[in-house]
Design brief:
Blueprint lengths: L5 E3 L7 E4 L5 E4 L21 E2 L3 E9 L3 E8 L6 E7 L7 H16 L8 E6 L5 E6 L3 E3 H8 L4 H20 L2 E2 L8 E4 L6 E4 L6 E2 L11 E3 L7 H4 L7 H16 L9 H10 L5 H4 L5 H10 L11 H8 L12 E2 L3 E2 L8 H6 L12 H4 L5 H7 L3 H32 L2
Parallel strand pairs: 1-15
Antiparallel strand pairs: 2-3, 4-5, 5-6, 6-7, 7-9, 8-9, 10-12, 11-14, 12-13, 16-17
Helix pairs in contact: 3-5, 3-9, 5-8
């Protein structure tokens, strides 16, 4: 149908489209944004070329749909190294692609924060290909870590998420909305047990204070696996889209399963638009119920039901940022953790259209928890839980009425 949104996963870092000379669109997957495995000994004519009189290209460290990334050395300060990303020559003729490539530098430059990758310079090669100069990072992205380890301990996952929240909060304060928050754009450096986070790839970001829009209404930009429903529908989004994306990252890190994953982007986008989330504790029963409530509030289907700001989300997560990962008795903004058999109160108030997440007598206490695949197949719903409770309440009410009637009848017969 002509009114359906156009699926365009890119063309920034991440799964992205590439427009070939004959107009066809193909999908490719981006490697690490600013550092990656060396691509081998293939000849590259730009090796040893000096850009802007300052940056000597030493070797290729990564390549993706938008461009190729090089390690570069400062020509006057030999010990200073950078990452230089150069737009692919075949994409230079596409004005929207060039705009988005340079948008990354503009957006990153606006956000001066230790958890945002630094972008220091822009320019063009001798044949007119734009390039960005950024800090050279050593480490791996969160996607690689999760692929290797499956899940992360609560404390470590929350520590990473809080750093992302602080970085994106700083971006939001400058009017920058990332719009593609996902594990591939969270880079981990330093100690693997206590990594420092760098948020990457502002290539499809939206600048609230900019008069020019690079994305038409009805065009879907981003990565379906972690995008909120309003973005999947091609609607205009605000900073709460990033809150949803960060909730999705934490969901993946704690459960081992992406919030929505149907294999290909189209099917996954359809799942985002039509299906409810599986409750995190269905997949990971050991998760504290209040932490689950935080995740589900962050990923509420309606933007107005999510946390209002990144700071609010970050503060709610703070009590779980502990060495042992043990949950506190209460989480800020969510009240005390529910006792056995109780529903998380704030989650009830939000009423997300998602599966029940604090049902009395969870599978963790009654036997072997279901496998993720079985849990997803069952997909319990919030409405089912409330119907059961309503039925129990009505039954109790009927019993009370019958008891009162019986007592009154006995009193009438007394002499």
């Amino acid at each position: 149908m002509s009114g359906d949104p156009k699926i365009d996963v890119g063309p920034a870092l991440g799964a992205a489209r590439r427009v070939t000379d004959d107009g066809e669109v193909s999908t490719s997957v981006e490697m690490g944004s600013w550092v990656g495995a060396e691509l081998g000994s293939e000849r590259d004519d730009l090796i040893d070329v000096v850009l802007g009189g300052t940056y000597r290209l030493l070797r290729v460290v990564g390549e993706g749909a938008m461009g190729r990334v090089y390690e570069a050395q400062h020509t006057r300060i030999a010990g200073k190294r950078f990452a230089v990303k150069i737009l692919h020559p075949e994409l230079v003729r596409h004005e929207d692609v060039r705009e988005r490539f340079l948008r990354e530098a503009e957006a990153a430059a606006l956000v001066d924060h230790p958890n945002v990758v630094g972008v220091y310079d822009v320019g063009a090669t001798a044949d007119g290909c734009p390039y960005l100069v950024a800090e050279l990072l050593a480490g791996e992205d969160l996607s690689g870590r999760l692929e290797r380890e499956g899940t992360l301990p609560v404390a470590r996952a929350v520590r990473i998420a809080r750093q992302v929240a602080q970085a994106l909060g700083a971006a939001h304060a400058r009017g920058v909305i990332h719009r593609d928050v996902k594990p591939e754009n969270v880079f981990l450096t330093g100690d693997p047990a206590r990594p420092m986070v760098k948020v990457l790839d502002f290539g499809i970001s939206h600048l609230d204070k900019s008069g020019k829009r690079l994305t038409k209404i009805g065009t879907v930009m981003g990565t379906p696996w972690y995008m909120p429903p309003e973005q999947g529908r091609g609607q205009r989004v605000d900073h709460r889209a990033d809150i949803y994306g960060l909730g999705g990252i934490l969901y993946r890190a704690l459960t081992g399963v992406a919030p929505h994953d149907k294999g290909d982007p189209g099917a996954t986008l359809l799942d985002v638009l039509t299906q409810d989330l599986v409750a995190p504790r269905v997949l990971a029963p050991a998760l504290p119920a209040p932490l689950e409530a935080i995740l589900l509030r962050a990923m509420a289907r309606r933007a107005e039901d999510r946390f209002a700001t990144m700071q609010e989300l970050e503060e709610a997560l703070a009590p779980y940022d502990t060495e042992r990962g043990a949950a506190p008795a209460a989480a800020p903004g969510l009240g005390a953790g529910p006792a056995a058999g109780a529903q998380a109160t704030d989650a009830e108030a939000v009423r997300p259209t998602i599966v029940d997440f604090a049902v009395s007598g969870s599978g963790a206490a009654e036997g072997t928890p279901p496998s993720p695949a079985a849990a997803i197949a069952e997909r319990p719903r919030v409405t089912q839980s409330w119907l059961v409770r309503l039925a129990l309440g009505l039954a109790i009410l009927v019993l009370l009425v019958a008891l009162v009637a019986l007592v009154r009848g006995q009193l009438v017969r007394c002499p």
